[in-house]
Specification:
The complex is a heterotrimer. By secondary structure, chain A is an all-alpha fold. Chain A is 76% helix and 0% strand. Chain A folds into 2 domains: 43 residues; 224 residues, MetI-like fold (Orthogonal Bundle).
């Protein structure tokens, strides 16, 4: 009995020590991560002249001036840009995750001739860097008259090999095929099975990939910059680049930081919403299992 | 009263233009309703919106692509190559280009002879701005709304300490050749100052005085004596601590413009105040009024933006009109100087300011009439020996040599890296063995 | 039709459902062919031509066979084959960032999912660690650059402490530029990896952990015998995608090395090299580099995939069999 107690206390001490270490690591990493946000927020409160004088850890009083300047900029319509970015990022996140899950399910759940070949093929094309074929992509879009259109920024998301791969891997570790069999016995049509039974089971994976797709689409600069030039179609990163390459007399770094801050906000909100749904999705899944 | 006269003159001129365009025997082509302008920033757009009245019924489309990573030229090139197939309202009418790559467009068939649209170059325009916009047969393809003679901008307090005087004439006498400039650099060093704040500060003063192009007719790379001289000078300055290893656009350099800066001389044209000298104008740490401007050791120019007419434009009358407004319209040119801190591409307006005893720069200088200094310099600017390769070669040489000057690599490696850059960018250029 | 007995009908069944497999993967392939395959085919095709621009004047395209590839592998006067140098740079930069990224991410994923540790404020930490990934890489690098620049606060602080003198420059020393790039990549991606691994761990049936603990396994044993094998598919995913991202590394080194791979090209990555050729639309050389990048990625990806999935093949299959039949 006595022995057991001491064992217990030893375990408790161990656990406490471990907890202290874990929290220390977490606090350190949190500091590293937040420091840059802090810097950015501070910089967004400084005027261009103040920014040119170097560096400070204390906010200055220019926040609302910068906000007003950024929001009302005559030539760079940031609210419009945010709306455009939102439309593109949201649609592409939805399309990317849905079709990747669909494709992965097609490969995971069915046996068909050439299945292995399909998988190998997608794995192989995943390796081809995207920037590499950008020029070819641009030429093609010009020929198809798809410049100044959101289509080339959204629809290609249907074929996202990396997301497909994740979904496939995820299904391999968590999707039992007998669930599908059960659905079939119940007379469910294959497509409905996917939408009503399989998709909910993939919720954590979908939430994760939604965030990633949303963020990468939101921050994408290279391709949109080459495709979009009408002022009313521009996305946030193009606007920021435009501001940075502006005439120096109008080169207001305070405004640039405010733009970056504004650009991050929606992503942050989407992220916070989805990160809750990951946790929810997992709990729901484990109850069922 | 003066204003009224100017406005009257502008109106008269516009009437003149209208009269002119209705006169010709060959009937003018149908004019388009959409005017497309490609640009990489908002600078000219601002002037355009303030000082140009768009004809009724015409919509102006600004297609602004940032120059980040070469995106502007990529986008523009794509649009120009597609110009023939584009619908009339989608065709580019006008686009902007900088000094370092204007040749690329001027020498091509994608820009058109502006005499064909009825624009004649006025003798109030600076010769070099016309030459820059002309192809090798002398056919002019566009105009510039500015002229960019560049000078030496010095700190008065430091000059006083080093030379014992801050008077522009005496300072100019002390640095009117590179030998003298070097000697003053040594004096400045003794007093604990830097002569310049960037290893590349003097680059344009040399490179825009080259006597031969970077690449000859047979695609051979050649080093002009001016370039060699710049490398020698910089080598010497770095070794002796006369300058810093910062680039022209680096914060380390612009920080030297604060009141507590230790640097005596900066090299730049009129646009330099706004683009580079905001630190000097800082309300807390700046030093407005402690600056004067002189010709320096060698007259040169730096930069500038040109407006080029795109082949296939269906708005030729408006094109001509824009060109007239920003070069010949004295009222507009006057406003560009008075309100926008520009140096105009109009000798008459420039002379007016240069000779005006009440005109002086208090934005940054001590009230000195800098237009007078620029006007003198502008007479000597020559546009010679430029190639399509200048942008890559000028910037590339500075970037690669910076690594040598800051001690990361030896000189041979730096040059080897420069050659490698050329090989990657223009495989056709033959490098020295 | 669904009522057919199992066993004899097994073959029939798989045949009848096969068409659904095709239907489900069709959208992917249509989109892929239009938006990716055609441009990629163009890229590979172009790599056999001399084609670039001098100004607006087009040179070529002239068929040159494998000349572009030969040019890539021709050593320069002092014997360096540049593409290999840049490949090595890329690898060093990636490994330097990826090792801490994976170690920390795995630890954090375990911390967060551990019932015993019961970390409080998880929501907060999880949100925070992913945040650096939300900033555009170019903007983030800009911030980083100003921090470490000659006139930045870190230089000033270190000078004040007497650690360095004023001539010191973070951006002229190989180790420090590489270190900064690795640090940034780590900061930007460890949260991402943590989340993916965490979602993977949370997807594992809790009953398996419980039974292992009841059987007397300690936490290290649980990790290697239960967690890791079951997590392996997701882990492989993380590793391969991180590697692909690493090989395509561009924005961060581009900004931090002033677009030039300072010092002396030691931080120039493969895609920066490729980007240099895009300025003049040199589709031939950039196509050839793309093909090389593709081959490198393919080989490395294949090795990692084969290696890791072979090692954990058995437990994996067992798990699958326990959870359901293969159709």
């Amino acid at each position: 009995m006595k022995h057991r107690v001491s064992d217990n206390t030893l375990g408790k001490i161990k656990l406490t020590v471990l907890r202290v270490i874990v929290y220390a690591i977490l606090v350190f990493l949190t500091f590293l991560c937040l420091f840059f946000f802090y810097l950015m927020i501070i910089n967004a409160t400084r005027s261009n002249a103040q920014l040119a004088t170097g560096f400070t850890l204390l906010p200055k009083g220019n926040f609302f001036v910068n906000l007003k300047n950024a929001w009302n900029d005559a030539s760079i319509n940031i609210p419009r840009g945010m709306l455009n970015s939102l439309i593109i990022a949201l649609s592409s996140a939805v399309i990317t995750t849905y079709f990747s899950a669909l494709t992965a399910y097609g490969v995971h759940a069915y046996n068909f001739r050439g299945k292995k070949l399909v998988f190998t093929f997608i794995m192989a094309v995943m390796m081809i860097p995207a920037q590499v074929s950008a020029l070819g992509f641009l030429q093609l879009m010009n020929k198809m008259h798809l410049t100044n259109s959101f289509i080339p920024l959204i629809v290609p998301g249907i074929a996202a090999p990396v997301v497909f791969f994740y979904m496939k891997q995820y299904m391999e570790s968590v999707l039992p095929l007998d669930v599908i069999d059960a659905a079939r016995v119940d007379g469910s049509n294959e497509f409905r099975t996917f939408n009503t039974i399989v998709l909910p089971m993939l919720k954590p994976a979908i939430a994760v990939q939604m965030i990633f797709s949303f963020v990468s689409s939101w921050n994408n600069y290279f391709i949109p910059a080459l495709l979009l030039d009408k002022a009313e179609m521009k996305t946030v990163p193009i606007m920021i680049a435009q501001l940075r390459s502006a005439d120096y007399s109008k080169f207001d770094m305070g405004k640039v930081y405010m733009f970056i801050l504004l650009a991050i906000l929606p992503v942050l909100i989407v992220y916070i919403i989805l990160s809750k749904s990951i946790i929810k999705g997992v709990t729901a899944g484990s109850v069922k299992g | 009263m003066k204003k009224l006269v100017a406005i009257l003159m502008a109106v008269l001129m516009l009437v003149g233009i209208v009269a002119c365009t209705t006169k010709p025997a060959d009937k003018p082509a149908e004019q388009g309703k959409v005017f497309n302008i490609h640009a990489w920033n908002e600078e000219f757009k601002g002037f355009f919106e303030k000082y140009y009245t768009v004809p009724e019924g015409v919509t102006v489309n600004w297609i602004i692509t940032p120059s980040d990573n070469g995106a502007y030229q990529q986008k523009l090139d794509e649009a120009l190559l597609n110009q023939a197939n584009a619908a009339a309202d989608d065709k580019i009418d006008m686009f902007l280009a900088e000094a370092d790559y204007i040749g690329k467009y001027v020498e091509s068939d994608y820009t058109m002879d502006i005499s064909k649209i009825g624009f004649t170059n006025a003798d109030t325009m600076y010769e070099y701005t016309i030459k820059a916009a002309s192809d090798k047969n002398g056919v002019c393809k566009g105009v510039s709304f500015q002229c960019c003679p560049a000078a030496v901008i010095y700190r008065k307090s430091i000059a006083k300490d080093v030379l014992g005087t801050d008077n522009p004439a005496e300072v100019q006498a002390a640095i009117d050749s590179w030998e003298k400039f070097d000697a003053v650099a040594a004096q400045a060093k003794e007093k604990g100052y830097y002569m310049t704040a960037s290893f590349a500060e003097t680059f344009r003063a040399f490179s825009n005085n080259c006597t031969m192009p970077w690449v000859d007719a047979n695609d051979n790379l050649q080093f002009d004596p001016q370039i060699t001289k710049w490398i020698e000078q910089t080598d010497n300055y770095i070794k002796n601590g006369y300058t810093l290893t910062a680039g022209v656009w680096d914060a380390e350099k612009t920080n030297e413009m604060f009141a507590d800066g230790k640097t005596m001389c900066f090299f730049g044209p009129a646009w330099y105040y706004n683009f580079c000298m905001t630190n000097a104008m800082d309300p807390e740490k700046g030093c407005v009024g402690d600056w004067c401007i002189v010709q320096g050791p060698q007259a040169y120019f730096w930069g500038g933006t040109w407006l080029l007419a795109a082949t296939g434009s269906d708005n030729t009358e408006m094109l001509k009109d824009i060109f007239e407004t920003f070069t010949k319209n004295e009222d507009v040119c006057t406003k560009l100087v008075a309100n926008e801190g520009q140096y105009p591409n109009n000798t008459k307006v420039a002379e007016k300011f240069a000779n005006d005893p009440n005109w002086g720069n208090t934005m940054i200088l001590d009230g000195q009439n800098d237009t007078a200094v620029f006007a003198e310099l502008a007479k000597n600017i020559k546009w010679e020996n430029h190639t399509n390769y200048d942008q890559i070669l000028n910037e590339g040489l500075q970037n690669k040599l910076q690594e040598y000057f800051n001690g990361s690599v030896d000189k041979d490696t730096a040059m080897k890296n420069f050659y490698q850059l050329i090989k990657e960018t223009y495989p056709n250029i033959k490098l020295p063995a | 039709m669904e009522k057919i007995q199992t066993g004899t009908a097994k073959k029939l069944k798989s045949v009848s459902y096969a068409k659904w497999g095709y239907i489900f993967i069709t959208p992917f392939f249509i989109a892929y062919i239009i938006f990716t395959l055609v441009p990629q085919f163009l890229t590979i095709y172009n790599s056999f031509f001399e084609t670039y621009r001098i100004g607006l004047q087009q040179v070529g395209p002239n068929f040159v066979g494998l000349d572009n590839y030969k040019a890539l592998f021709t050593p320069d006067p002092d014997g360096t084959i540049l593409i290999l140098k840049y490949a090595l740079n890329t690898m060093i930069l990636w490994v330097a960032g990826a090792v801490p990224q994976f170690v920390i991410a795995m630890l954090l994923a375990l911390f967060f999912t551990s019932y015993r540790l019961n970390i409080r404020g998880q929501g907060f930490f999880k949100t925070v660690i992913y945040m650096p990934n939300l900033i555009m890489a170019a903007a983030f690098s800009m911030l980083f650059y100003t921090l470490f620049s000659r006139v930045g606060p870190i230089q000033a602080l270190l000078e004040q402490w007497g650690v360095i003198d004023h001539s010191f420059d973070f951006f002229s020393i190989r180790v420090s530029v590489r270190g900064m790039i690795a640090l940034m990549n780590f900061l930007m991606w460890f949260g991402n990896t943590t989340i993916v691994l965490m979602a993977g761990i949370m997807g594992i049936d809790q009953a398996l952990f419980e039974s292992a603990t009841i059987d007397g396994a300690n936490s290290v044993q649980v990790f290697f015998k239960v967690t890791m094998p079951l997590l392996m598919p997701i882990f492989v995913y993380c590793l391969i995608t991180a590697m692909i991202g690493g090989i395509q590394m561009f924005d961060v080194p581009q900004v931090l090395s002033k677009g030039d791979g300072v010092p002396n090209g030691t931080t120039r990555t493969l895609v920066m090299y490729l980007n240099g050729y895009l300025k003049t639309k040199n589709l031939g050389m950039s196509g050839a580099i793309s093909v090389i990048i593709f081959i490198i990625t393919g080989v490395l990806g294949g090795i990692v995939y084969k290696m890791l999935s072979a090692q954990y093949k058995d437990p994996n299959r067992k798990h699958r069999e326990r959870k359901g039949n293969v159709i």
